[in-house]
Design goal:
With about 260 residues, the chain is an alpha/beta fold. It has a single domain, classed as Rossmann fold, CATH 3.40.50. It contains nine helices and seven strands, in the order E-H-E-H-E-H-E-H-E-H-H-E-H-H-H-E. It has a seven-stranded parallel β-sheet with strand order 3-2-1-4-5-6-7, sandwiched between helices. The longest helix has 28 residues. The structure holds nicotinamide-adenine-dinucleotide. Nicotinamide-adenine-dinucleotide binds next to helix 1 and helix 7.
């Protein structure tokens, strides 16, 4: 039944933050589904390792070291990707940082600027470069990365939650603008996804809290576990595929029921 096939042989996927965590999980699944991959990540050594491992599994993969918070590096990255593969079919705006956990009075200007640049402004930069290329080649698909904290709020990660809410608004606005060019744009809103750098960052300073937090997190999630990068990757693969041809401007929650709140 080829009509139900999620494979996209030779399609080109650009994945920001593709070196680790969810981005790496998406790269693995898309590579296995026949996509040619561009990993754009600020961490060149983790990116090299991931790219080499994917290549050893038979994936066609290009690593482009890039700070997505820098508009000129993003422009160069997208141009390099387009030169390498002549097209971009799928763009996953996944790179993100959560920043330090802090009350508003201790939020440093530098941290605020960095979080907004990496988590929100970067999505403007990549879309500004990729939309004209997708338009020229007849269409494409863009997937942005938000978080359930964009809706629920997060007491001590205010800049992160606000940036992710901005990503949701940007997704909806661009959906109105680019749908006529056969470019679909959607947004993921995950709950807690385990085994990623983002989730570990906080525990570097608070290792004693990890076990207790994990137990209370599991209690909050009706499905009884945190998500895995692979859970997110399977949803991304569906949203990138022709099976999702009429899904556009959607914010898709993937959280095992976490955002339903306490019972
Ligand atoms: N893990 C979760 O629970 C969770 C929940 C909701 C949303 N998210 C979002 O998922 C995305 C991926 O996070 P993750 O959990 O996999 O974390 P992660 O830290 O494992 O992965 C993030 C990747 O982005 C890269 N990166 C960071 N800053 C960058 C920059 N300026 N330029 C290019 N690359 C950069 C990192 O090097 C890393 O490879 C983020 O946008 C995050 O906000 C994560």
């Amino acid at each position: 039944m080829s009509g139900f096939d999620l494979r996209q042989e030779g399609a080109v996927a650009v994945i920001t933050g593709g070196a680790s965590g969810i981005g790496r999980g998406v790269a693995e699944v898309f590579g296995a589904a026949g996509y040619r991959l561009v990993l754009a990540d600020i961490d060149a050594s983790a990116g090299r390792q991931t790219a080499d491992e994917l290549a050893s599994l038979g994936c066609e993969v290009e690593l482009i070291p890039c700070d997505v918070a820098d508009a000129s590096q993003v422009a160069a990255m997208i141009q390099t990707a387009a030169r390498r593969w002549q097209r971009i079919d799928f763009l996953f705006n996944n790179a993100g940082v959560v920043g330090r956990q802090t009350s508003i009075d201790h939020l440093e200007q530098e941290d605020l600027d960095r979080i907004l640049a990496v988590d929100l402004k970067s999505v403007f930069y990549t879309c500004k470069q990729a939309v004209p290329l997708m338009r020229q080649s007849g269409g494409g698909s863009i997937l942005n990365m938000a978080s359930i904290t964009a809706d629920t709020g997060s007491a001590y990660y205010t800049a992160y939650s606000a940036a992710k809410a901005g990503v949701i608004a940007l997704t909806r606005s661009l959906a109105r603008q680019v749908g006529r060019f056969n470019i679909r744009i959607n947004c993921l809103s995950p709950g807690s996804i385990g085994g990623t750098g983002l989730m570990q960052e906080y525990y570097v300073d608070h290792p004693e809290k990890q076990t207790q937090d994990r137990l209370s997190l599991v209690k909050k999630i009706p499905l009884g576990r945190a998500g895995k990068p692979r859970d997110v990757a399977h949803l991304a693969l569906f949203l990138a595929s022709p099976l999702a041809a009429h899904i556009h401007g959607a914010i898709v929650t993937i959280d095992g029921g976490e955002s339903l709140g306490a019972q």
